[in-house]
Amino acid sequence: MALLEVNNLDVRFAVRGGDLQALQSISFSLDKGERLGLVGESGAGKSVAAFSILKLIAQPGYIAGGEVLFEGRNLSAMSERELRQIRGNRIAMIFQDPMMTLNPVLTVGTQMVEALKAHRRISTRAARDIALKKLQKVSIPSPDKRLDQYPHELSGGMRQRVIIAIALLLDPDIIIADEPTTALDVTIQAEIMALLLALCEQDNVALMLITHDLGLVSQVTQRMLVMYSGRIIEQGPTKEIINDAQHPYTQGLINALPQMGEPGRRLYQIPGSMPSLSRIPPGCPFHPRCPFVTDECRQTMPEYVQSGNVDVACYEVSKLIEQENRAPEVTP
Amino acid sequence: MKKLLTAFVGSLALASAPVAISAEATQSLKLAYDADPVTLDIHEQLSGGILQLSHMTFDPLLRWSNDLTFEPRLAKSWERIDENTMRFTLREGVTFHSGNALTSEDVRFTFERLKQSPDFKAIFKPFSELKVVDETTFDLITSEPYPLLLNAATYIFPMDKAFYSGNDKDGNAKAAISKQGSTFASRNQSGTGPFKVTSRQQGVKVEFERFADYWDTASPGNVGKISLTPIKENNTRVSALLSGGVDFIAPVPPTDLERIKNNPETSLVTMSGTRIILFHMNQKRFEPFQDVRVRQAVAYAINQEGIAAKIMKGFATPAAQLSPAGYQGHNDSLATRFDVAKAQALMKEAGYEDGFTITMMAPNNRYVNDDKIAQAVAAMLARINIKVDLKTLPKAQYWPEFDDRAADMMMIGWHADTEDSANFYEFLTMCPNSETGTGQYNAGNYCNPETDAMVDQANVETDLDKRAALLQDVEKRLYDDAAFVPLHWQDLAWASKGSVKIEPILNVMNFPYLGDLVVE
Amino acid sequence: MTTATVSRWDRFRESFLWYSFKRDKIAIVSFVVFVAIVLAGVFAPLFAPADPYDLAQINIMNSELPPVWMAGGDAQFPLGTDAQGRDLLSTILYGTRVSLLIGFGAVLMQGALGILFGLLAGYLGGRVDAVLMRIADVQLSFSTLMVAIIVGAVFKASFGNLMFGEIAIYMLIVIIGIAEWPQIARTVRASVLAEKKKEYVDAAKVMGFGTNRIMFRHILPNTLSPIFVISTVQIANAIISEAALSFLGLGMPETQPSLGSLIKSGFDYIQSGSWWITLIPGLVLVVLVLVINLLGDWLRDMMNPRLYKG
Amino acid sequence: MTVQSAPLVDIRQLEKRFDLSGSFLEQLQFRNGRFTRHQEYVHAINGVDLQVHRGEALCVVGESGCGKSTVARTIMGLLTPSGGEVHYDGERIDQLNGREVLPYRRKMQMIFQNPYASLNPRMTIQQTLEEPVCFHHPAWSKAEVRDQVQDVMQSVGIDPDWGVRYAHEFSGGQRQRISIARALAVDPEFIVADEPISALDVSIQAQVLNLLMDAQESRGLTYLFITHDLAVVEHFGTRVAVMYLGTVCELADTKTLFASPRHPYTQALLSAIPRLEDDRPNHIRLHGEVSTPVNLPSGCVFHERCPYANERCKQEVPRLIGSDTGGQVACHAVQEGRL
Amino acid sequence: MLAFLVQRISQALLVMFVISLISFSIQDGLGDPLQQMVGQSVSEAEREKIREELGLNDSFVVQYLRFAGQAVQGDLGTSYFYGKPTLEVIFEHLPATLELVIGASLIIGFLSVPIGVYAAIRPRAWLSKFFMGISTVGISIPVFLTAIVLIQLFSIGVTVNWFPPETGWGSWLNGLFSTEGGMPSYGRGDGLVHLFGTWHSGFFSSDGLRHLTLPAISLASIMLPLFIRLIRAEMMEVLQSDYIRYAQAKGLAPHRIHFLHALKNTMLPVITVGGVQLGIMVAYTILTETVFQWPGVGLMFLEAITRSDIPLIVSYLMVVGLIFVVTNTVVDLVYGLVNPTVKLTGKKA
Q: Taking CA atoms, what residue in C is nearest to B401?
């Protein structure tokens, strides 16, 4: 049994004039110690997916269907009180912007100690000791001093280290990291990512990495999902997808990277842009931008087909697979 | 609510433990006026508030009774010695709050001080001297025969000479009168009156306590303590009475008379007053007013009865002349003359059928409903095609405008300090003369040497009947000449809780004789 | 040009503003009531049975008649009469007009001062900003009442007392305008500071546009929605301020009453039974201010929930 | 690198400081019983020399706070330099007044980072594009202006019929196209692009990069391209300048730089970008954080994080000197042959 | 810090200078003080003499310089009416106003925070909507109307006869809508306790508190809705922020999130705006003090105007300006203490 299993998760935003489908039938799983990447452009629903696992989607959003099983227990059916036992304790989160994530008016120590005390019967002194150890673990210089500092007194990289330390405080099983390095500079990014990776490997913590950076995913994760307009259009082992993407969107995304083009020449480009939630077209949401579009694509969302170890939702791909399967019969 | 209230008052009486109050003077009274006394020096300012204070903490030689006759107070008797001299005999055994005994010297000291006071010196101008005869006898001497000698004597509230002599610790004379800054006399008092001031927070509260050695042991008064709170806002003052916060209020706004009268727990006393409210028509500023027909037209256009009934809620006596009933100059034959047709005819006759535009000014916080009255008058004048540009001002700004005679018609209210008709004419209708000071408030610039001569004559006429005839004739002439537009005499009203028997102590001068007040 | 306007209208009808307005009952009711009151005020001379400014129509003997539905009411005076015998309905209609005029006028004045100073302070920054905002600070330490006294005295010195009737309305506009401009200036400055950092301003600079063009053509239009929201609230505030000044006797003369001075003039009568003289105009005032506030709230929610920070 | 004709844009010893210390009163500090005046500056750029040649795309890379945007904005006159000179086509332009600078405004244009903020939300696209054209060509008729705008809209792939719409009705990529159209509308020869694609999604980035390259080709534009994304540089740039804390630490042809980066910082930067590769490269780990430009380190600005720093690096500021690969490097270690 | 104080002090001086100059320059428009000081029948010559004594006949410049010279020595002149130094008069009246403001602030503080927080946490609850509705109505009613209604209801009492009194339910309903009255409607009462100097407090006696109740409620009635809205708006915004979501993601209990993480951040802007508003409130008590005849500086000021007591008017304006600057300074200091991200400089946070 997978550590975390998401089955047919539907998330909607209740806005004036009806609901918007933010996530449609999302299914994936995460094993213990596994590193999973969630890739997509902004608005694809990857953050919504991350937040709905812990039922943390903001007000107009709500879970309309499906289940999130953590160790076999359905998180989406749990009471707030029960969920609080999981949040931060078994499943920790790292947010995108370290500037905004820490409460500006509370010291680092307070924010670490309160997390510990929320889940363990522990004295403040003991909690501080644990906090100190975790700060050392993320190699923050003079950690004892940091405990009494306010977030604004730390640099961006340092803050993200603190957040990683908080995530590790209660030795969780899963860390969900939502664009953990996007707000940081390139050289700092590399450092933070390396740290996170090392710590996850060391403690065998599962990592769910949400990012738009294909390079990062390719280097860090073992498996990845590609999202588009609230749907998972492709998922499978990272290497396979990067090396041989099946879905036209994934292909386009990879080919559009400057490093894939020849310097000074036009890059491959996907025409148009991802529709907003209120304007998702019927059928495959990618069809208006897809070079292989057919009438079928315009009408119904394709089912997943297996290509190698990769699940893809695309009629073109399923056609190709059919042809391949049929091929041996045709050949004499 | 009543129960609550008595408990409330009771606890109060307990809280303020009495020092020494005469056997029966145990009641306490909470009093709300529209203003509190400006100073404790009764010679610093001539105003109603100060005179009210004077009657509480001092006693005059003689005072007005309800029916406008004289009642002996500190002077137990007086007799005319010659044309210019009146001899007074003081009551014996009267002591000041300081414990000093009252003597003729104190009266002389007071008289001299009055002659120094900028506010009072005008009243005592006819007097040349106060001569001490012995400890309890003195002569009051005028330079010419003066018919209003006794009227003026009501302003003599003997002060404690010993108390007010010498210098205070700053080296200033204790007797000094000053409008600016504080003087010894403005902070300290020693009088012979029924009450002593025990504490005073200006603008907030003054507290009085009955003087244990008060000479008038015959007084039925049983109030031991008074606290006076100024409540300027009419509604709040009335609310305070109705909610039981105070026992006695004055003045009562006309709009609330009905309500207080109908309330079983409160009682109301009204009296027709002596303060005349009138408009002057400025002949100098506005030429058509020089035409007697125009002035008459205006006089005919004004419905005094309407104003008195509607705006004043019957709380005013419509006036056709200056002198209220009871004054020597009051002429019974003069009646209000509201007649729009006649007024229109007069305007036509004067050649102003199409009317004209005039400016008008009135205060808006000086007299009862002053601004509303002015508006009503403006509306009435509109009927005879006189368009009025009306401006009402707070009193502080109004008086400078008045001094400048800034509008064609200006409102003024006048109360004769001497309670005598001549005072009206001197200030309101005589030809303005800065040397003699006559006509100081004559904002109409009306000038009639004939009537002026008659007034002068009356001022030295000691035969009261003759004098009355003379003054009534003046009144008639002014009426015929439409020298001004009289509106009404503003009535006086006081209200109290049923248990506070205010009626016997009130008078048209608006000096409640609180020493004699009985509270049940 | 017509096509452009039509398309603008279409655009408006498709807009979120119109959409949410249609769905918000409170906004619709407030808007209808507001428009009704404004129309009644603007066209007061058409609707009013009598002209309260014409003194010749007034008869003192008709004073304090109760509304028509009460005993003693007179059909000639549907809402009764005031202490002068004026028809209360007409007086309220005219008074509403005066109050609205002062409300809008004062906000125009505040807007003119506030926008100008706010733009200058926000865009030019530095010393100009420091000086203007310090003035605004000082200004805020005066209550409207104090400004009223000061401006009143200045007006009096310049025009004399007799002109008062004619200039009172302008005076009140100036008073409330001066007393409250910092509110708008601060709002404008805050949004200019935010807008100034946006790249379209840099783009305009790079194009070589002059300072005035950038300030007024580019930045100003983008600060309009907060100005609009705060102005709505400020109109309500101005109407209340005027009422308060009138209550203290510093407002409109009773010969040309505003709602505030009507309330004040009836104030003496409220406890003596003639409640309608105060309470009916009071109700109109409260309803007027309330619907403006409700519309302001709604607008604020629509345009920018962050605005109320002052 | 071969020196061709005179550079189009030439900046010499450019410096820019921002005053942090506020008014005189705020600068006063009471220390040890005496009042002292204390001033603080952000040293955004410290003596930068750059030449942009006609027809090339010079890319400036660096992390946030390295001063690359300040260089762009100073060239465009949005900021006045604290020192140094900016020359355009041989003329010094950093001291010109508003009127004198107008002709250059037409020749030099800028594209901004945030497509959501760089268009005036209260103007239609038509208005946004017409305004600069009218402004710079007051003599043109309405029709001429309209034609020019239509041409430019078509050239960036925006349907001219959309001109009546407002910016918020467009997606980020379309807005960036409009933003480019605005710059192109006045027919410039030099464009400064300040992180024009970093706010865009990956699939859109390619569109915009293609558009910029097309425009360069068809109009013969010269670019100064500011970015933090080395992959883009590699694809787009003719030459690259790497900046760190307000100084240029390496300047070279793109190919040269990517093939053999010399400066330790460039090396670290190159190794830090996650690339689509199966094997994980050895990161050159930098220790420490980027210093703040408020308290500039002495000597080489990079010495605090540099694994090769020695005493000289802490004392002496390295100068940009030609290296064996044809580029220029400001590094004592490289010059001493330690690296 | 030092620069901050120096700047604030110079600002205060500037404010006071400007105020004194303005008020002096308009004194002629405020009326003639003499009219209030002498009786009606005092002759013109006498008046002229007094004017001369008071220095009212000197030129503006001479008067102002004389004033400024004394002001530098801490003497702002002598009130015509009270005959005492104006500062003394103001300090006698100030406690009443401050108590009113403190009373109102307590009401505002105790009500606005829970209501505002509740309305922010549960924006859709009917109780929130009710509170917000009431607060909108609250800001739409002029304070003097509120005051009058309060007096009518709670001081005088209202007897309602809308329902047939002979029936049981009728009399019950009549009783329900009728009010007893009896609350004091004016002044500060007799139970004042002397604290020190000129400060008498009504806080320590039931009578004093009873007198304070209605005025404080009516003063609070204008500010309370503003504060509720402010707190609600700030709180709602804070609740949107990342660090609140992050706190939830840490598994913290809602009360800790709302009352520590959110409220602390909410209160920062509320302190700035609110503190300044409280400072302004001193200047805005005039209406309340008038209706309730509360013997504070507002009433004193209004009366000074009707009396043209120019020295008192000038001093009042200067003191109010000073109070404003002082509260601003205190607010900024408090803000700096509470908010760890702010370093005190002369700049506004």
A: C161
Structure tokens at B230: 């100024």
Angstrom distance (rounded) from CA B36 to CA B141: 35
Q: Do residues A98 and A87 lie in contact, with contact meaning Cβ atoms separated by under 8 Å?
A: no
Structural domain includes residue A332: no
- Whether C34 is covered by a domain: the verdict is no
Cα A81 to Cα A73: distance, rounded to the nearest angstrom? 14
Q: Are B237 and B249 in contact (CB under 8 A)?
A: yes
Q: How near does any CA of chain E get to the CA of D65, in Å?
A: 21
Peptide bond between residue B251 and the one before it cis (omega within 30 degrees of 0):
yes
List B29's β-bridge partners, or say none. Answer: B226
Residue A50 falls within a domain, yes or no?
yes
D 114-153 residues with CB < 8 A to A: none
Angle of helix C276-303 relative to helix C25-42, nearest 10 degrees, comes to 130
| Domain coverage including residue C214 | 87-302
User: Domains of chain B, with CATH numbers?
Assistant: 27-229 (3.40.190.10), 273-491 (3.10.105.10)
Summarize pLDDT for D196-244 with one digit per residue, the tens. 988 888 888 899 999 999 999 999 999 999 998 888 888 888 999 999 9
D323: its two tokens: 């290296």
Fold of the domain spanning D9-237: Rossmann fold (3.40.50)
Residues A42-86: tens digit of each pLDDT = 888 888 998 999 988 877 788 998 999 999 899 988 898 999 999
Q: Residue with structure tokens 């003069």?
A: B334
Report how many Cβ contacts below 8 Å link chain A to chain D: 122
The Cα C285–Cα C102 span in angstroms is 13
Could you tell me which residues of chain D have a Cβ less than 8 Å from any Cβ in chain E?
22-23, 25-30
CA dist E52 → B173, B369, E39, E49, E77 (Å):
21, 34, 18, 5, 16
State whether D25 and E347 contact (CB < 8 Å): no
Contact call for residues D224 and D190 (beta carbons, < 8 A): yes
| Total domains in the fold of chain C | 1
Regarding chains C and E, contact by 3 or more CB pairs under 8 A is answered as yes
Chain E residues closer than 8 Å to C141 by CB:
15, 279-280, 283, 320-321, 324-325
- Contact yes or no for A194/A173 (Cβ under 8 A): no
Smallest Cβ–Cβ distance between E303 and the set B203, B245, B434 belongs to B203
Sign, Cα dihedral of E223, E228, E232, E235 = positive
ipTM score? 0.80
SS3 E23: helix
CB E188 within 8 A of CB E208: yes
Q: Is C33 part of a structural domain of the chain? A: no
Q: Domain containing A190: what range?
A: 4-260+268-326
On whether residue A8 sits in a domain, the answer given is yes
- The angle at the Cα of B191, spanning B190 to B194, to the nearest 5 degrees, equals 120
pTM of the model: 0.82
| Nearest CA-CA distance, residue D201 and chain A, Å | 6
pLDDT digits (tens, 9 = 90+) for B296-340: 999 999 999 999 988 888 889 999 999 998 888 999 999 999 999
CATH number of the domain within which C236 lies: 1.10.3720.10
